[in-house]
Specification:
Number of helices: 5
Shape: rod-shaped
Number of strands: 9
Order of helices and strands: HHHHHEEEEEEEEE
Helix content: 25-40%
Length: 202
């Protein structure tokens, strides 16, 4: 139970996710089970042992209800197999969509974080085709999805102190397979274009 509560993370997830709702049902069943067991132990057992017939019948019925509750708890626990916890969903949602593009002239690692629709950030690492450093003058990211009827999204990247390039003001509006293109300005007279598909989740 403690582990399940940790997996829920936020109280709102108890009602907003299937995992949280199953946890609430299980907690309610456990509370009912413990209450019923305590009643049987402290109120019904002694009179039943003393031979009170009506109490004995009540105790038998109560034990039967206990067994049904236990079966229901097992059923709820089995349902967790099909309901990933909010913590796991959050971790999965935060995973980046990443691709590697390699050509004879240049190569790049592009990561879009998180890898689903909405506000995202793009991180770009560029190198020469033989894994050497590539000191580009400018890098531009272009995301396009013609089948969605959306104009290409074009953003200039900013070079960071560690040599990576980054795009922060980026919003991916729809999920699916996009085409990512990197326009790398190597010099005033040379632009290298790298292009590959990238999958964006919901």
């Amino acid at each position: 139970i403690v582990l399940a509560i940790i997996q829920v993370q936020a109280p709102a997830a108890l009602l907003e996710t299937a995992y949280g709702r199953l946890l609430l049902i299980k907690l309610a069943l456990l509370f009912f089970l413990f209450t019923l067991a305590a009643t049987n132990r402290w109120k019904l057992t002694a009179p039943a042992e003393a031979g009170e017939t009506e109490v004995q019948r009540r105790l038998v019925r109560s034990i039967g209800v206990e067994m049904l509750i236990i079966l229901a708890i097992f059923g709820v626990a089995a349902g967790w197999r099909f309901t990933p916890p909010p913590r796991a969903l959050a971790i999965a949602a935060a995973q980046p969509a990443s691709i590697h593009i390699h050509t004879p002239k240049a190569m790049a690692d592009l990561s879009i974080t998180p890898g689903h629709v909405g506000p995202v950030a793009a991180s770009i690492v560029i190198m020469t085709g033989d894994f050497g450093p590539l000191d580009a003058e400018q890098v531009t990211l272009v995301l396009s999805k013609p089948d969605a009827g959306i104009e290409p999204i074009k953003r200039a990247a900013t070079k960071r102190g560690d040599g990576t390039w980054r795009v922060d003001d980026l919003v991916v509006p729809v999920p699916g397979r996009w085409t990512a293109r990197l326009d790398i300005l190597v010099s005033d007279f040379e632009i290298v274009k790298l292009e590959a598909p990238i999958d964006i989740g919901r």
